[in-house]
TrEMBL record:
One cellular component (GO) term of this entry: endoplasmic reticulum
InterPro entries: NAD(P)-bd_dom_sf (IPR036291), Sc_DH/Rdtase_CS (IPR020904), SDR_fam (IPR002347), VLCFA-Steroid_DH (IPR051019)
Listed transmembrane segments: 6-27, 177-198
GO MF assignments: oxidoreductase activity
Protein name, as recorded: Putative 17 beta-hydroxysteroid dehydrogenase type 3
Taxonomic lineage of the native organism: Eukaryota, Metamonada, Preaxostyla, Oxymonadida, Streblomastigidae
Length: 269
């Protein structure tokens, strides 16, 4: 009896392991699909698209021929990124929107949405993040600013943009994708980064839940890096670069894989 029980448990474990490894290998070693054809072009909307993962992602989709909308607060870096994208592909249209997501969420969202009127957005990438190191017992105004940036403003933007994407049809089929940038801090207990970790956990779980509601879900792995956070050398060695992360994200889009990682989420409608 016990032998049969162990055999059944072993089979269940093996199937679970294969269910985890196979999708991960598919994404890891597969090249991105023809996303331009799959989503019919359109615009890719990226928050925090002027540095790090967002910039790397923008450059890759520009090379594919997508038009791009970048939202960030640093106007100089926005302009530099726009120039870099035009060097990669002079045919793409690049729209830059200067906005600080840590400001009043409702006003910032209205400011951004007004500039998107009439644009066909096929991919949403909620990537911008704001992290500070401080004790929860000694908070500053930055505590609420990162809460606004990482959760509230992104939720406002999601609520304004996702319904349109979810009902975007191409040749009679709904086509669009949503990506969320979370963080390893969402899954480990980090002192002096309590609020930051909680905000990133929200985004990751939003992506997980949405993947069960959308027509199909795709998870792809990443480790987020932030210019405002000093990562230990060991963590930097095992972390992926922004370019590697963007490549994995694009390899995952359009493929129905599950449970690759809970740190990064992308959902296809």
């Amino acid at each position: 009896m016990f032998t049969q029980l162990f055999i059944v448990l072993g089979i269940i474990f093996l199937l679970s392991l294969l269910g985890y490894l196979i999708p991960q290998l598919i994404v890891r070693f597969s090249k991105p699909l023809d996303l331009q054809n799959r989503y019919g072009g359109g615009f890719v909307f990226i928050t925090g698209g002027n540095s790090g993962i967002g910039e790397a992602f923008a450059k890759k989709v520009a090379a594919m021929g997508f038009n791009i909308i970048i939202v960030a607060r640093d106007e100089e870096r926005l302009n530099k990124t726009a120039s870099a994208l035009h060097e990669i592909n002079s045919q793409v249209r690049v729209i830059t929107i200067k906005a600080d997501l840590s400001d009043d969420p409702e006003k910032v969202t209205q400011q951004i949405i007004q500039q998107l009127e009439g644009l066909d957005i096929s991919i949403l990438f909620f990537n911008a993040g704001y992290g500070v190191m401080e004790l929860a017992s000694n908070p500053t105004e930055n505590t609420l600013r990162q809460f606004h940036s990482n959760i509230v403003t992104h939720q406002y933007l999601f609520q304004a943009l996702y319904p349109k994407l979810a009902n975007r049809y191409m040749n009679g089929v709904r086509r669009g994708a949503v990506l969320f940038t979370s963080s390893i801090c969402a899954f480990f207990q980090y002192p002096i980064m309590v609020v930051y970790g909680a905000t990133k956990a929200y985004l990751g779980h939003l992506g997980e839940c949405l993947s069960t509601e959308a027509d199909s879900g795709v998870n792809s792995r990443f480790d987020e890096r932030s210019n405002k956070i000093k990562l230990p050398k060991l963590l930097k060695r095992v972390s992926q670069t922004p370019d590697e992360t963007a490549e994995l994200a694009l390899s995952g889009l359009g493929r129905v894989t599950q449970n690759i990682s809970k740190i990064y989420q992308s959902i296809e409608t």
